[in-house]
Design goal:
Layout: H1 3-9, E1 12-13, E2 18-19, H2 20-26, H3 33-41, E3 45-49, E4 52-56, E5 62-63, E6 68-73, E7 76-82, E8 85-86, H4 92-95, E9 99-101
Antiparallel strand pairs: 1-8, 2-5, 3-4, 3-6, 6-7, 7-9
Helix pairs in contact: 2-3
């Protein structure tokens, strides 16, 4: 594998911050940035940072590694921990390194 190919597979940085619409797009959770923007502006995303939960209502809201996002997409509740931010949109296999599925708690 060439250096160029290796660099394309690892477009993420650990200490960065990124707009929520761009992060959703880079993580391949939405097909376009416009869909990520619409999801954010409808107030459908909840962010947990340092134990405080808040509703995201702006596409320019900044997410950072360590944040937890929860939202409904495709009729399914997604709870994700942000692990990294991306410099650009990479391959589908590389997008999986940007987040991890958080363990969900059941309400009974």
């Amino acid at each position: 594998m060439s250096r160029r190919a290796a660099a394309q597979d690892a477009p993420a940085t650990d200490d960065a911050a990124q707009r929520i619409d761009k992060w959703l797009w880079c993580a391949r959770l939405v097909k376009t940035r416009a869909l990520g923007q619409a999801l954010a502006e409808k107030g459908k995303i909840r962010l947990t940072r340092n134990g405080a939960v808040q509703r995201i209502e702006k596409a320019h809201f900044v997410v950072r590694p360590g944040d937890r996002l929860s939202f409904m997409i495709g009729g399914r509740l997604r709870v994700l921990d942000v692990l990294r931010c991306a410099d650009r949109r990479g391959s589908a296999s590389g997008a999986g390194f940007l987040y991890s599925d958080a363990p969900q708690t059941r309400l009974e």
